[in-house]
Amino acid sequence: MTPSSDHPLDWKFSQVFGERAPGDELQEVDVISAIGFDKSGDHLAIGDRGGRCVIFERKDGKHNLDEHRSRLELEQLDVTSSQHPEFQFKTEFQSHEPEFDYLKSVEIEEKINKVKWCATSNGSQFILSTNDKTIKLWKVKEGKVKKVKEMNPGPLTSSDNVLLSEKSFISRGDKPTVANGYRQEWAEKMANNVSQYQDIHAKVADTEDTAQTRCRKVYAHAHDYNIHSISNNSDGETFLSADDLRINLWNLEISDQCFNIIDMKPPNMDDLTEVITSAEFHPIHCNLLAYSSSRGFIRLVDMRQSALCDNSARILQDGDSNALKSFFTEIIASISDIKFSKDGRYILSRDYMNLKLWDVHMDSSPVAIYRIHEHLRPKLSELYTNDRIFDKFGCCFSGDGLHYATGSYSNLVRIFSHGIGGEGTTIEASKTPNRKPLPRAAPRVRRSSLSNLARGFYRHGHENSSSAGNDISYDLSSKLLQVAWHPEANLIASAAGNSLFMYYA
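Given the sequence above, the corresponding structure tokens read:
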């Protein structure tokens, strides 16, 4: 039985972090490249092309509730949390630095490809982050730091200097009156200075909550090709990492050893027909995982069958994909992202043209197909020329598994609900997110020219989202690749450039 939803969600703007002012130039290192909520939904982590990780925490989270607050304040917080979660900045740290592989003579970018939260223990959060070659495990711990507001070192400095000078002239022949070797008056003076320093220190110092980050493990030198996926296992002890041809299994506590569980590299690279594009563990069963390929297949694997899981337990493929083939068929069929539903029954996959919902018990065809870029089909040649056709869009499930979201061009978020037909809901990554549904009509007829192809995109003018016409401008230079759905609430976090937009329903 497939899930169903009674009505589409009404989305509203919630928050934005890192919004650029008009005219500000977007720096490449600031572009958000990874995003993810933790299991509780109290924390959100993002990674950017500059190798940095930024963590946000929920304002009304249970860790923020103070037992000394009044009943009225707690009731207000309860009302706020019942509406929609709001987040605030917690900490930022440099996860990866640019490196150079001298053996292969290639540069390794610091760009964060994926961030994944691990199981929480002892009040600390653990997060995995990876660039193309190296995976790191970070510990984020709450702590209190004393912060000095103001300091007047004059009296202390002069008093200490006098004390030191007086101590230096103590004669060895003088008879000490106390056990530490100093005369009684010097001991009294030292005690007075110490007490004076403690009093002043208590006045000028203040404490504040802060998050401390520390790298616990580094998992390196295990991939010949660029890492594009990491996924935590439900057992809380292992995780996988995947590149184009291999998937490795790691233990969180062992950083110098991993097991290769899937190897698609043929003896002769000329015989290579497909590559791995995404991989994820089953959310409940620790022995199951799924990975997608550039041919549009999703393979379910049971690690109990053999040590090398090249023989998949089940292959999910679209039976209608064999209908009409062209030069671009295999390119647009390549799956860029897959996600399991919370109960593990369904898989959401995203290729360049469509968002597909699969039932793991039905391998012949997807349960539902949602058209995302059908209006771009006449422009595939142009998209291939400027490499837009290779853009990799992410997707996500809602916590209840009834709604799905993915990104598109013009910084648009497309949201669908199972059981409800039509174009779904389209919102723009801005403070005024409401947009009209994408038109299904054919694009305007235009003359093809070299200048238009070289430009990289064609726009239907500069229509505003509130205009009366049905045409919507598509800016292929602005794309929304990263989306994440809050695990407990109808809240979507989306990354447009260097800005993080949140919407609630």
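DSSP finds six helices and 30 strands in the chain. Try to locate this feature in the token string yourself.
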